[in-house]
Protein 1
Amino acid sequence: MGLSALKLGRGYPRQFWLLFWGYLISTVGSSMIWPFLTIYVSERLDLPLSSITWLMTVNAVAGLVFSFISGSVIDRAGRKWVMVISLVVSGLVYFFMSRAGTLAQFALLQAVAGAFNPLYRVAADAMMADLIPAEHRVDAYSLMRLSNNVGVAIGPALGGFIASTSYALAFYFAMSGLIFFGLLVAAFARETLPQNEFLAQPGENRRVGYGQALRDRPFMLFIANFTLTQVASTILWVLFSVYLKNNFGILENAYGWLPTTNAVLVLLFQMWITGRVKRFAPLKSLSVGTFIYGLALGSIALGQSYPAFWASMVLFTVGEMILMPTSTTYTANLAPADQRGRYMSIYSLTWGVASGIGPLLGGIATDTLGPRSPWVGGMIIGLLSAGAFLLLSRQSSTKKEQMPI
């Protein structure tokens, strides 16, 4: 990950590194299967794309419901055990997916996955905000992305070869990585809930619910627009592999190198890009990153060969390296200490909502308008979102909203 990244993290607490290495282990396992899940379900059930992409909507709806519940739980009961339960249940879902054989079974498992998968990310992001001072958060979240992407650099490339011969084995690896990380958190992590900062004073009621977050206009405008950005992202991550296989004969073992390219680029350049991006107002940075997303998806519609699709992934990754640490840090810095779980749960909903919209619309568009239509649509969404972030940046009037992160 480079000397600069290691030097940057020397002062972080031990628990940060537990999350860092545990996240790496779990990501290696889970990323062996998720890029190929659409292909797996489609081929196992022998159904067209539009008949299975609605499973992502089931996943998203469950995620919406449980993310709202989890935010209050995380802020009141703590982060640690929510993370453990999420990781263990998510691992078991992969095991049962290897056994599923009907659409109803996959729908049920997608509902369970949607309910429990987001809980880890919400709790972990809140824990990170507890552990790391505000001035160091963008670097800490960037380091955590390095952990994720080292895992993704290994997982899909290895998983593509394994899945081409045995999807069951790939599912078992995914299960093992998640459950092992859950056991690490259970055994070694300490609770970080900052109760002393916001315990109710005598005669006062501790704040509950999402009212404060939902009334935070800058935050909610950011959430609404970032959801559009995530729609573009979900179209790529869910439909890219099946698009390449069905239209260009690019099989799983070859496709696996595209997510690996994404991961290696993040590994090599994330900290360098973060060091430059954090000098600028976050909403402007988000506008630039989303604009690049749109261009990347549009370029897929024009691609005719593996090198062209590889170049599209490179372009997409540049946008991602700008967007993801910036968006997470922006959320953490807006959130009051006693509302971090709630703010992070709403932030996590952007992916859940987007994954319920993007793949479903992409599958319908593929079957009705042609295979290139999702990429043209994704480009339009990305460009519109970029324009909206730029408008929000110009309308921002407070120092808190526009100061560099």
Protein 2
Amino acid sequence: MSPLPFELQLALRYLRPKRTFVSVITLISIVGVMLGVAVLITVISVMTGFDRELRDKILGFNAHLRITNFSRRPIRNYQRLAQMVSSNAHVRAVAPYTMQQVFVQTEPETGDPEAAGQYLRGIDPKREGEVSIVPRSVVQGEFNLRGNRILVGETFAHNLGLRVGDKLVLVSGRDLRDIYNAKKNEKADAVIPDDYEISGIFDVGHYEYNAAFIFCSLATAQELLGMGQGVDGLSVIIDDPNKAELVRKELSRAIGGDVYISTWFDDNSMFLNALAVEKNVMFYILFFIMIVAAFGIMSAQITFVVQKTREIGMLKALGASSRQIMTIFLSQSLMVGVLGVLCGFGLGHLAVAYRNEFLAFMRKTFGYELFPAKLYLFNELPAVIVPHDIALICGASLVICILAGLFPALNAARLRPVVALRHE
């Protein structure tokens, strides 16, 4: 005697591979469910990886809070302001900074110089390690900002062919005004910008940051930008980035005055919100793959009920109830769903595990860049598998598969024995 109820025994027997039209449809239905689950797991994991990786890069390169002047003028008494900020229980580190755009020109030994616009960030070398990962992200050279030494991003260095030891000319907005005035007034002395030596090349793992930023010491930036002893703002690190809004309110009440406090989410809200919306939209759009697969299960079950009409009549004549008949066909839908979900679960995890190898293969074989770093900002395709998302995908897919078999099962259960036994 088999320990399984006879409904499940019949469902398993009917699902055994046979060279029939119904078996082919059933196999296609399983493959459809498998592909739907695999695609959903892969896409949602990649979108989640994007979100988490982006947050990590943002929080590694930028502070949790930034304090600046409403008037955009330099903060002169930043030491006293830093002490007030540090007194908050949630604050872990505070560091001054300057950040303005400058004009950059290379000085190659041969050939014509190249030019670009960059963000110049002046930092305190002793404190920067407490508020960002830049000091720990130098991949060539060293973190040395003494004198006129600077750090450049790996992408920027690659684009302009720069190496450690090369020199750059940095021209600030003030220098451009002086050059314009010198040209306008022929008696004025010409302005000659200073040279700056590349002491290191950094890679923070974010394409945009590697391409757009140059670092120098705070004193060098103040001299170049003509800020005296002032700074553009303070970078603040707190114990929990998710408490940034709470800490901002506390600091606003404590500091008051003509200061503006922005959080890391404020500075990147548009991109982060767009990514969250895109993830949800992708989930709903791709879930239609499961609905298509469900129609395959429904068509297979309808055909199967028609083929097994006489057997259904015999079972009812022998005493099988309508509930038991319905259970047989619902069990078939459940088994198809379970097989498809399990195969999709494995295929999805396999695709996530070897995603970057697949991209490298496509790039090497066909020369096609499926994941351009310039567009997506990361050098590799990120992915994070969240158990909650996987449970939602697999559970919802299984429910869809069962519901797809409900209509054919109800029709089978309604058949009367006399009518079913007459069926040819």
Protein 3
Amino acid sequence: MPAPTLHQSRILRTPQGSDVPIDGALVPFISRLWGMGMRTRSSCQDYGDLLAMSVPGLPAGDQRWIDFYKGRVWVELEAGHAEQLVGLLSRDRELHMALAQWGLPESWTCVRPILPDLTGGPARTAPSAHLFFPRSDVKRVVGVLEQLDGPAGRT
């Protein structure tokens, strides 16, 4: 049985055959990504809420970050799929502006960590990227992805 989730969720079967909880507000978005062959690793419909959560052995995050991410979706994708998604969504004029600008409430951000080597060798770029965007964009994103190639979302 899956672990309890922060937000109301639905159990979806991944393309790889695993059952995972997906936050209710993200079901159409995550389903669309999977239908397009994009692999997600993690997601949350409100990353600020996730940062505010306290779990045994791990305190809640810093209030400044909680406030910054409040109302923002978080999705972790394989890096190549994140690049593909940003490219596809930038075709939409409104989303293009949100993807291209920094520091505005409607701005999107993408983070791809650089990971240190445990033995002191060269650092490496993480295999996944984290996209953060306003939750209010979810319906528009799904609509843009649906327009690319009809109901199945194939591109």
